[in-house]
């Protein structure tokens, strides 16, 4: 598990490309037969990907947590962006298909991930946050995730938002999680841009063709920087940072938040005309 400490807005504004990538980009997460995790000290989230192929993969405990097991004081949200597979939590089996989600509350001791077909493996994006009470384990398909259509073709941002873990969906201590699918021809995500200093956020891009890239824009609204990202990479968005971007084709991304509250709509707008 990689450990990432926080960076101030001022420090970030002075970083070069390599430093920005080292601090905020999470690369090489989806590796056959591996689970790769990054611990960020922004709200103490742990994010990453489990990609089981022929054998099950366990959610490992880590010395840094000083816990008896990973979910002793944590909850976790899981979204499958690959082939069919199973998430098994203390014997409870969740059959997952592409874009279905599993929530596991505090107290689950043994968690494993497996793929049904090694030729079309499941790819599980994970986001875990500290939790102070147990909420029930839950499962939701994309159809159950209350799709909302946003944006328009004239601004190249026609997209559908699916919310899984939120105040009116699967309940959690602090995790808020869902995904956004851009229509073909639409390339801009999360416009108009916003911040929410109450919550940090992680974006995980997927269904982006291998020869295409997303120009993810981060930083304070008047100090923007970009990270050029490929498929199955994640970016840690600090609470003070914008998080939006433009792709060289359409794509999808998972968004996952943690922090002070779970009010999805309380973003602070950073209008396009205010950006620098
Ligand atoms: O705080 C909310 C998150 O940034 C995303 O949900 C925004 C998003 O998915 C979109 O507009 O497409
Ligand atoms: Zn946001």
Automatic annotation (TrEMBL):
Cofactor(s) needed, names only, are: Zn(2+)
Q: Identify the metabolic or biological route this protein is part of.
A: Glycan metabolism; pectin degradation; 2-dehydro-3-deoxy-D-gluconate from pectin: step 4/5
Q: Where does Zn(2+) bind?
A: 194, 196, 201, 243
| Keywords carried by this UniProt record | Isomerase, Metal-binding, Zinc
Superkingdom, taxonomy of origin: Bacteria
KW Plastid (keyword) present: no
Q: Which InterPro entries match?
A: KduI, KduI/IolB_isomerase, KduI_N, RmlC-like_jellyroll, RmlC_Cupin_sf
A single Pfam family it belongs to is KduI
Q: What is its EC number?
A: 5.3.1.17
Give the molecular function GO annotations: 4-deoxy-L-threo-5-hexosulose-uronate ketol-isomerase activity
Indicate yes or no for the key word Transferase.
no
Textual note on the cofactor:
Binds 1 zinc ion per subunit.
What reaction(s) does this enzyme catalyze? 5-dehydro-4-deoxy-D-glucuronate = 3-deoxy-D-glycero-2,5-hexodiulosonate
What's the family? Belongs to the KduI family.
**Record's function text:** Catalyzes the isomerization of 5-dehydro-4-deoxy-D-glucuronate to 3-deoxy-D-glycero-2,5-hexodiulosonate.
Name of the protein in question: 4-deoxy-L-threo-5-hexosulose-uronate ketol-isomerase
Q: Which organism is it from?
A: Polluticaenibacter yanchengensis
Q: What is the lineage of its organism?
A: Bacteria, Pseudomonadati, Bacteroidota, Chitinophagia, Chitinophagales
């Amino acid at each position: 598990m990689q450990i990432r400490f926080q960076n101030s807005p001022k420090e970030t504004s002075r970083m070069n490309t390599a430093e920005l990538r080292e601090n905020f980009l999470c690369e090489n997460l989806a590796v056959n037969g591996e689970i790769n995790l990054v611990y960020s000290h922004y709200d103490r989230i742990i994010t990453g990907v489990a990609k089981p192929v022929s054998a099950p993969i366990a959610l490992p405990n880590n010395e840094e947590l000083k816990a008896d097991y990973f979910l002793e004081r944590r909850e976790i949200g899981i979204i499958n962006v690959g082939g069919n597979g199973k998430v098994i939590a203390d014997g409870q089996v969740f059959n997952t298909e592409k874009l279905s989600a599993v929530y596991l509350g505090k107290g689950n001791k043994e968690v494993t991930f497996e793929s049904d077909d090694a030729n079309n493996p499941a790819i599980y994006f994970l986001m875990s946050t500290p939790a102070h009470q147990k909420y029930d384990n839950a499962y939701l398909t994309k159809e159950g995730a209350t799709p909302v259509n946003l944006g328009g073709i004239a601004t190249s941002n026609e997209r559908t938002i699916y919310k899984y873990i939120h105040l009116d969906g699967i309940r959690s201590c602090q995790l808020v999680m869902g995904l956004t699918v851009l229509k073909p021809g639409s390339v801009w995500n999360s416009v108009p841009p916003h911040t929410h200093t109450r919550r940090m956020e992680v974006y995980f891009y997927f269904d982006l063709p291998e020869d295409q890239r997303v120009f993810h824009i981060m930083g304070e609204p008047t100090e923007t920087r970009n990270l050029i990202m490929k498929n199955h990479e994640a970016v840690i968005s600090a609470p003070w940072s914008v998080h939006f971007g433009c792709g060289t084709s359409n794509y999808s991304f998972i968004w996952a938040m943690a922090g002070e509250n779970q009010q999805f709509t309380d973003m602070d707008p950073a209008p396009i005309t205010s950006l620098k």
